[in-house]
UniProtKB/TrEMBL annotation:
Alphabetical keyword list: Cell membrane, G-protein coupled receptor, Membrane, Olfaction, Receptor, Sensory transduction, Transducer, Transmembrane, Transmembrane helix
GO CC terms, sorted: plasma membrane
A family per Pfam: 7tm_4
Name of the molecule in the record: Olfactory receptor
Transmembrane annotation, as ranges: 67-93, 105-128
Localization (cell): Cell membrane
GO MF annotation: an example: olfactory receptor activity
PANTHER family: OLFACTORY RECEPTOR
Superkingdom per UniProt: Eukaryota
Membrane protein topology class: Multi-pass membrane protein
Length: 150
């Protein structure tokens, strides 16, 4: 409470919800604007955009490129915010005078940082892997890793 007030917490929570809502509306709007001609069955854990676009018979290059650019900007902004937040957290932890207090604070932060790392690394692998590594079972495992495990 002394480092961050409730007003800042509410603003950050609202920004997280707004960015998630914006991303969902963007992807949902794109999906409803696509015509499908290859059936409607996905061999996935949940409906991700790339498998849905594979079922499409319309030319969605410009639409997909626009969504990639907007999503990349959103992800980059969130990533920068997370990094800056952790810099502030670790700076505050290092100011704690007792070693026991630092250890207690770090033991609270490090598991969360590990979950964030797992989430970000599997997302990066899922979306930036080369097309030569196209394996539906691998895609399923990665999807479970970044949705269920964290």
């Amino acid at each position: 409470g002394t480092i961050m007030g409730s007003r800042a917490c509410v603003k950050m929570a609202a920004a997280a919800w707004a960015s998630g809502f914006f991303s969902a509306v963007l992807h949902t709007g794109n999906t409803f604007g696509v015509t499908f001609c290859h059936g409607n069955a996905l061999g996935q854990f949940f409906c991700e955009v790339p498998p849905i676009l594979k079922l499409s018979c319309s030319d969605s290059y410009l639409r997909e490129a626009g969504i990639i650019v907007l999503s990349a900007c959103l992800v980059f902004g969130c990533f920068i915010f997370i990094v800056l937040s952790y810099v502030q957290i670790f700076t505050a932890v290092l100011r704690i005078p007792s070693e026991q207090g630092q250890h207690k604070a770090l033991s609270m932060c490090l598991p969360h940082l590990a979950v964030v790392f797992l989430f970000v690394s599997t997302i990066i692998f899922a979306h930036l892997k080369p097309p030569s590594i196209c394996s539906p079972p691998l895609d399923l495992v990665v999807a479970v890793l970044y949705t269920v495990v964290p």
